[in-house]
Write a structure and sequence with these properties.
The protein is an alpha/beta fold. The protein folds into three domains: 3-50; 69-226 and 356-532, Vaccinia Virus protein VP39 (Rossmann fold, 3-Layer(aba) Sandwich); 231-352, no CATH class. 35% of the residues lie in helices and 19% in strands. Strands 2, 3, 4, 5, 6, 7, 8, 15, 16, 17 and 18 form an eleven-stranded mixed sheet that branches. It starts with a helix and ends with a strand. The model is unreliable at 123-134 and 286-308 (pLDDT under 50).
Length: 534
């Protein structure tokens, strides 16, 4: 055997050791390399395990194959509940999220505005392919192979304005981003958010205190501007309008607004400098001069009080005289008490907007404490995501009529964030068994969390948990589905696919004829027979 082939075989062993490649795939490539006709052919075979033609990223994709089984939704009546039929119905789907996404495409293709996923990563022990178990990890190759077909389905669910956020750690960020580039296109990359989750005191060269959240959209040309008006600024603006409707004297309005701001300073922390009022509205001081030298002024103009010319700054004027006078003419210049005070431009509260920041701090421990207050049990789930984090993403990128989806739902954090913003949600969670969830995560945590925060009590009608003592239940409705399977060849009366599949769970009215039902099932459920090879 040539030295080149020996090196190629060693490289495959290294990739297996680094948990980048599966041992079975490496063994197959080794056989092909050993039996290759020449070294060039051996190199081409080895490239199958080291590169990917578009992104430079390789992972062993699993192919889809057809099976005779049809996967379909079946209502879990005991876990479902309705509190208000005037409100939309949210959904929790228990089962493999690949099969759940296939079924969701029947009703929601192109209808989902917001997807958030937190796939399992970064654990120590090794898992099987596509096992999204939160106790185990999956190899990087398996992580990418598991995500790829699911992202392909998720892309079809996204609306034209839709976005998808994915949490990921340092170790897998580069690889997962390449995967998203492949599925959604590099041109639809919106950005990366660095979530500073805690203070890490571990003795290492670089203290890891953050994770990443990558964001892609369905079509960058359809993406709205993500700007929202500051909630605190809205409060001041509304108070100003209320005072203006009651009083005509500007001095009275100014005095009362300042008194109100002072009395509510805790709620208005960070914007309490909005305490200036004139006949044109509420504004703050905002210097437009980069000159920091004492005596520097924005422009050489006669002060209206002292009639004394301002001193020209060393670095010149920022604006021309014409520009400055136009602002003055519109009443947008705030003059100081005397010639020693630099004039400022009034910044009106109506223009105060917030943007989604690329660096966001949210203490991850808050999420653990929240779960404790809902369940009364410590560490029922490792490393849950904070509700505020997901709500913040949702706040900028959704509207009131948006449907949000999380197909790695975990404890149901995305569902709670959606409830806080009055959004409709769909959650998918495999019922994995762990040491703290003997009946499975979906049964023991996800469904119970939603039941408690939406109705104020658990399924056994108990309400002795701390969260309900400080919060009002969100209300709303929840349909819980299980994923069942039926053979497409089943002919037993009452057990055929046309008998067991309930079209009303897919947004349809009951079909009037069997012929219509058969046509609908054959047209829509073919894709639910696809299975990813393991």
């Amino acid at each position: 055997m040539s030295t080149l082939r020996e090196n190629l075989l060693e490289e495959l062993d290294r990739r297996v050791k680094d948990r980048i490649m599966e041992q079975t795939n490496a063994d197959l490539l080794k056989k092909l390399i050993i039996n290759a006709d020449n070294d060039n052919e051996a190199m081409m075979i080895a490239q199958l395990g080291t590169s990917y033609k578009r992104t430079g990223l390789h992972f062993d994709k699993r192919l889809e194959k057809m099976t005779s089984d049809i996967h379909y939704f079946k209502m879990n009546e005991s876990l479902s509940f309705h509190t208000d039929d005037l409100k939309p119905t949210n959904k929790l789907i228990i089962g493999d999220n690949y099969e759940a996404l296939q079924n969701l495409l029947i009703q929601y293709k192109g209808d989902i505005d917001f997807i958030y996923i937190d796939p399992p990563y970064g654990k120590d022990s090794m898992g099987d392919f596509a096992r999204t178990n939160y106790q185990n990890s999956i190899t990087r190759d398996n992580l990418l192979s598991m995500l790829f077909p699911r992202l392909m389905l998720a892309k079809q669910l996204l609306s034209g304005r839709g976005v998808i956020f994915c949490s990921i750690d340092d170790r897998n960020y580069a690889y997962v981003k390449c995967l998203f580039d492949e599925v959604f296109g590099e041109n639809n990359f919106v950005g990366t958010i660095i979530w500073q989750s805690a203070t890490d005191n571990n003795p290492r060269q670089i203290s890891i205190e953050h994770e990443y959240i990558i964001c892609y959209c369905h079509d960058i040309n359809n993406l709205d501007k993500w700007l929202i008006k500051s909630e605190k600024a809205k409060l001041i603006e509304q108070k100003y309008k209320d005072l203006k409707s009651k009083y005509s004297d500007i001095t009275t309005i100014q005095t009362k607004l300042r008194e109100w701001i002072k009395a509510n300073k805790d709620d208005l922390q960070g914007v309490a400098h909005y305490n200036n009022v004139d006949e044109k509205g509420v504004y703050s001081n905002s210097s437009n001069s980069s000159n920091t030298k004492p005596g520097g002024y924005t422009f050489d103009i006669i002060h209206p009080v002292t009639h004394k010319p301002c001193v020209k700054p060393d670095f010149g004027w920022r604006w021309t005289e014409e520009t400055f006078l136009n602002y003055e003419k519109c009443g947008d210049i705030e003059w100081g008490r005397d010639e020693t005070t630099q004039p400022h431009v009034k910044k009106r509260i109506e223009t105060v907007d917030e943007k989604l920041k690329s660096v966001y701090y949210e203490d991850g421990r808050i999420a653990t404490k929240l779960l404790e207050s809902i369940f009364g049990v410590k560490k029922i789930f490792d490393n849950p995501k904070p509700t505020n984090l997901i709500r913040r993403l949702m706040e900028f990128s959704t509207q009131e009529d948006s449907i949000v989806l999380d197909f790695f739902a975990g404890t149901g954090t995305t569902g709670q964030a959606a409830l806080e913003l009055n959004r409709t949600f769909i959650l998918c969670q495999q019922n994995e068994l762990t040491a703290t969830t003997p009946c499975g995560i979906a049964y023991d945590v996800t469904s119970k969390r939603l039941k408690r925060i939406m109705t104020g009590e658990c399924y056994d009608h108990s309400c002795d948990f701390d969260w309900i003592k400080k919060n009002k239940p969100y209300g709303g409705n929840l349909d819980v589905y299980e994923i069942e399977r039926v053979s497409s060849c089943e002919k037993t009366e009452g057990e055929t696919p046309f008998d067991v599949i309930d079209e009303t769970l897919y947004g349809c009215q009951k079909f009037k004829t069997l012929k219509d039902k058969i046509e609908w099932v054959c047209r829509n459920f073919c894709n639910t027979q696809k299975k990813v090879e393991e």
